[in-house]
Amino acid sequence: MDLEPLDALYGASSTQPLSWIIAVGIFSAFFLGFSMGSNDVANSFGTVVGGKVLTLNQALVVAAIFDISGSLTLGAGVSKTVASKIIDVEIYKNEPAQYMLGMLSASIGAAGCVGIATKFGLPISTTHAVIGAVVGFSFVETTEGVIWWSAGKAGMGSIIISWFLSPVLSGIVASIIYIITKKYVLQVPDLDDAFKRHRKLSSVIVGWVSALIVIFVAYDLTETGTIYDWLNIVMAVAALIVMGLFAYFFLIPWVVKRKLRVEEKGSEEERIPLTYSATNLFISPEPEIIEENDQSADAYDPKLENRFASLNIITSCFMAFSHGANDISNAAGPLVAVWDTYRRGYIDKEVDVAYWVVIICCVGVLFGLAIWGRYVIETVGTKLTKITPSRAYAIELGTATALLVASFLTLPVSSTHCLIGAVVAVGLCNGEGRRAIKWKMVGNIVVSWVITVPLAGLISAGIYAALKPLISGVALPPGAQLISCLYNCTNLTRT
User: Fold this and answer.
1) Which of 147, 96, 134, 117 is nearest to 38 (CA)?
2) Do residues 314 and 208 make contact, with C-beta atoms less than 8 angstroms apart?
3) Is the torsion defined by CA of 452, 453, 457, 458 positive or negative?
4) Residue spans of beta strands (DSSP E) within 284-382
5) What is the sign of the dihedral through the CA atoms of 281, 274, 320 and 408?
6) Which of 196, 172, 185, 195 is nearest to 390 (CA)?
7) Within 13 A of 388's CA, how many CA atoms are on the CB side?
8) In angstroms, what CA-CA distances link 106 with 109, 147, 165, 205, 337?
9) How do residues 3-48 score in pLDDT, each as one tens digit?
10) What is the C-alpha to C-alpha distance for residues 216 and 219, in angstroms, rounded to an integer?
């Protein structure tokens, strides 16, 4: 009989020889969050920070609140999908050590893939990297471990389909919103009337966003087919009315006055940027040759465009919430699986999401936004992708809506995918048609997405194969259970 290893923090279990996997996994998950904060979240808040509606420190606080809120309320289902519904965990039932190492390799592989792409300035999807890395390590053991279609499980088939449908959905929503905005506000000849219409439209948007969040979170937390179904609808309608009125009488006037105070300072750098740096898809001349009377695209009164800063701050918050609900939960998925197996001592098909894991990814996002994100935010005012504030809010609304729907359906999709779909759709509505889009750039981005999955898979498989000898001597009996014996394990034995 051998004494069970003692862990001063977690007690004793059969998985304690693998505690190092937890430590390495934490760093890997943090780095994935850091990379997302440096790019995705920075893009979301670029318009409002670049336009001086919020300072960078204020943006950090807002991003923290909404990213964490999204990941803790709607993100659990997405994390569970990544952890146990992409590959068949049953094949590792008798080898939980291999499963833990595989998920660690997936986290490292995804982080490595994202890091390499960031280094060379390549557009990449963190979601693609995570999914590809999970599939990649499983191929080392067997090519039959991937779940393609299965009742009650997401499966790679439905995930891949969602990758195509999500940008279509975001594009449809974004284009509808932008067309309504043009007809109802931007094309109104009388400026005072346009201002009044903008205030009404902004209030409706705030109410709609609030209702969407309430209805999805409520249905996710309650059982369907009960009285809660009606209560959820009532709460959503109440949120729409209350938040709409709050926006009309308080929020929108406050943001507009704040923006006007900035404009009164007369500094050119303090004007809200008419650009958006997320994708660089829109054709735009160099600054020194821009013509003020260029009529090739729809152009509207700058004062009216600047009023949409009040909507940009709302949509940025919505984007942060949706990003937390999906992308951050994707990144947390591998470590969620590792920790759940470590805690139990065996593999369970239905993992319990440890929210401290999600928070680690959120902290990484905030550090990325604070350290590298400031440079992306500064780029928003100089890259000349020619997305006005009215277009930016439509793009962000379309993107966030698609992400929120996918999170509710527990499907891991890419915020970059959704953003590209929305950008292209709004670009096609801006008066220039197909000429407004750099289709070659779109093609390059699509190719990079396709490459991401096998690249992350290869890195993950290589790491798994290299580290596998480290667990060869670890005995993990099937069905082993966690034994809580903190500081009282002297008589604990196993046969």
Assistant:
1) 117
2) no
3) negative
4) none
5) negative
6) 185
7) 21
8) 5, 16, 25, 39, 11
9) 344 344 444 455 566 788 888 999 999 988 887 777 666 666 765 6
10) 5
Question: Which residues share a beta bridge with 393?
Answer: none
Q: How many CB atoms lie within 10 A of CB 262?
A: 17
- CA of 73: how far to CAs of 17, 105, 332, in Å? 33, 27, 14
Q: Say how far apart CA 407 and CA 263 lie, in whole Å.
A: 39
Beta bridge partners of 146: 87
- Phi and psi torsions of 317, nearest 5°: -65, -40
Number of C-alpha atoms within 13 angstroms, CB side, residue 423? 25
Q: Please, which residues bridge with residue 150 across strands?
A: 153
Maximum C-alpha span of the chain: 87
Measure the CA dihedral 169/173/178/184, to 10°: 160
**What gap in Å lies between CA 48 and CA 17, rounded to an integer?**
48
- Name the residue type at position 375: Y
β-strand partners of 494: 2
pLDDT at position 384 over 70: no
Rounded Cα gap, residues 37 and 377, in angstroms: 11
Amino acid at 98: Q
Measured between its terminal Cα atoms, the distance across the chain in Å is 5
Q: Pairing relation of β-strands 493-494 and 2-3? A: antiparallel
Q: Can you read off the two tokens belonging to residue 237?
A: 């309608």
Backbone angles phi, psi at 147, to 5 degrees: -85, 115
Both tokens assigned to 1: 């009989």
Which tokens belong to 383?
């890259």
Model confidence, pTM:
0.78
CA distance 104 to 343: 15
Q: Where are the alpha helices (DSSP H) in 350-438?
A: 355-371, 373-379, 389-408, 415-427
Nearest to 457 by CA among 131, 79, 126: 131
Token representation of residue 418: 């959704």
Q: Which residues pair with 121 in a beta bridge?
A: none
Angle at which helices 42-50 and 389-408 pack, to 10 degrees? 150
Q: Residues 89-108: pLDDT tens digits?
A: 888 888 888 889 999 999 99
Residue 379 phi, psi dihedral angles, 5° rounding = -65, -25
